Amino acid sequence: MTLPEGPLGIIAGGGGLPVRVAEAVAAAGRPVVVAVLDGHGDAAAFAAHASRSFRWGMAATMLEWLKGHGVRQVVLAGTVARPSLLSLRPDAAGMKLLARIGKAAFSGDDSILRAAMKVLAEDGFEVVGAHQVLAGLLPPAALLAGPAPDDLARADIARGLAVCRALGAVDVGQGCVVQQGLVLAVEAIEGTDAMLARAGTLGREGPGGVLVKALKPGQSKLADLPTVGPRTVENAAAAGLRGLAFEAGATILLEREATIARAEAAGIFLLAFDPGQFTEGTPQ
């Protein structure tokens, strides 16, 4: 993708992805302007760029600040825990913005993101995905590490994909853990790491379970894609799982080399899968 002239704005949550985006864009010679979500992103990580922290309730002020720096194109990157309504403490401009988002503020994460992107577009911003800035973030279908999944593991992946699709249809989560056909845990607001910790206490005897991650039905690829990285692998291994399977072309793979190396060291598989090959109840 050829990005236009002018600064790229980053609305940064937690984790390493926003930092990687900022570094890559700056290295290409394009200015970067970073609005850090207070309590989520690390403002110190963006000291080399024009940056400022904003709490949720100042979202409208944040957009005006980005505009004041000449930003017309933005990337939404990083992990974010949705705040409670009481903690928002919106300023006057934030109240108007919240009214524009409307009832989506009380819905699931994807509903909120769609509403937020609509507001951004109405305000003259173009939202681009992190994968459009950083090449190789969304791996194609391939076995990236570990032994090939056997028939039982493939059945667990198919079961997990069906569960993820059902969860996603009601805008709940993007992941689950399945062992021998049993759904040990599903992802909701607690996130993948907490789900894996819970699944580790629920495992059965015999072959370990599989973490499955997939895009929600109809979800945009511009924000909040399923994500796996080195910590995901570590937590999956600690939970006694034997593999991670994620939707190819729709899941961000952070720190690719480190993630693959840790999966190989743990002896678990890392599979980017084509959903068409894992439909529950059909032979593979």
Short characterization:
By secondary structure, the chain is α/β, with parallel strands linked by helices.
Overview of the molecule:
The chain has helices at 17-27, 59-68, 92-101, 109-122, 130-133, 151-169, 192-200, 230-238, 256-266, and strands spanning 8-12, 32-37, 50-54, 73-77, 126-128, 142-145, 175-179, 182-186, 210-213, 227-228, 243-247, 252-253, 269-273. Helix 7 packs parallel to helix 8 (230-238). The radius of gyration is 19 Å and the shape is elongated. It starts with 7 loop residues before the first strand and ends in an 11-residue tail after the last strand. Strand 7 and strand 8 (182-186) form a beta hairpin. By secondary structure, the chain is α/β, with parallel strands linked by helices. The strands form 3 sheets. A 6-stranded mixed beta sheet has the order 6-13-11-9-7-8, with helices on both faces. A 5-stranded parallel beta sheet has the order 3-2-1-4-5, sandwiched between helices. It is built from 9 helices and 13 strands. It folds into 2 domains: 8-133, 3-Layer(aba) Sandwich (Rossmann fold); 142-277, 3-Layer(aba) Sandwich (Cytidine Deaminase, domain 2).
